[in-house]
Amino acid sequence: MQPSILHERNYLTYLCGSLFSTQGVWIQRMTLGWKMWDMTHSETWLGLLAFLMFFPVVLVGPLFGVLVDRINRRRAAVVISLVLSSLGGGLAVLVGAGLIEPLGVLLFALVIGMTNSAYQAVRLSLVPELVSVANMSRAVAINAILFNSARFIGPMIAGVLINLYGGAAALAVSGACYLPLTLVLLCLKLDEQARRDARGPQRRFLADLLAGVRYARSEALIVRLLLVICCSAILGRGLLEILPAAVDVLYSRGVEALAMLTSAAGLGSIVAGLILSALPRARLLSALRLAAIGAGVVLVLFGLNARFEAGLALVMLLSFCATVCGVATQSLIQVSLDGAYRGRVMSLWGALNVGGGAVGGLLFGLLTEHGGYGLTLVLLGALNVLLAGYATRGLAALASRQDSQ
Prior knowledge:
The chain is mainly α. It has one domain: MFS general substrate transporter like domains (Growth Hormone, Chain: A). It has helices at residues 9-40, 43-54, 56-68, 73-96, 102-130, 136-165, 167-176, 179-187, 192-198, 205-218, 220-236, 243-251, 255-277, 281-303, 308-336, 342-371, 373-391, 395-404. Helix 4 runs antiparallel to helix 5, helix 4 packs antiparallel against helix 8 (179-187) and helix 11 (220-236) runs parallel beside helix 16. The relative contact order is 0.17.
């Protein structure tokens, strides 16, 4: 009989801290996007902001992946959460004093992006230590529900704070949201000795990094799943990174409409997480294929639509598809890889997932500013359908072969 995830004490403790930190992520993300649009009214600047916040994970994420296979992950998570809290507080002071310019926002975005790269590598390796293998896919789905519940609630909180008290107050709250996570991390009890015993031989840093890449390349299922998440992140999520511009240009609306669109995206992700938390692993591959291709169809429909109400529904569907792709690929990789390479392989997944979103935000920003929304979304949506169809073809056979080994 499969143990209930409600009996995973360490995991539930960690969730309590994440309830707050994930709110901070979305409050900060929306506030910075709105601040940048307010200062520049440029889709390119917005895309560049998303790029700098998320692309660093591509460059330094794999390096952090090597580190987390060597160090105490709980202590690293504590330090990183304190740094993220300090960055939010520093931004709040500068915005409140009127000392921040677009280039300054980009600089902070870069530092936040690099710090988040470190935290993502730690988080992706830490969660499997908090939950049993039998509950791994449920834990990943619950994490997605939690993150995207914040995506639903956080923008609404940010919208209220910006309207009533200004961007500085919203950023201050985002920084404070990391403090409960720090306290929770200090309370976790992990078996570090067991993890050290399970770790493979330690080589030089670069050799360890290359060993992780070689391992990932040697597993056909992992390679294909990484390709799926790359396609989903760049083409399936790129539009979601430039919503502040879309609200103004397409619908001539303000921060309240942005909060509604961002919350609609969060709602779509919550529904996806709830469905996936109850879905047997055998059905994950079918759901992944439908979602990966479906995201492209939704983009095409968005490009042909001009009504705000329809836009809300389409953004919700797009986010639903993106979440299915993220949760399914992460779950399938987590349960199929060798634990000795977990930090390095999952950092590659994280680099493609987060870095792909950064590239997508920049791509969508450049193309929509210079080529218009309609044509850009139709063309990129069609490209997404083609690439996703190829990437998900034959996945079931690869998974079956992996299980039989």
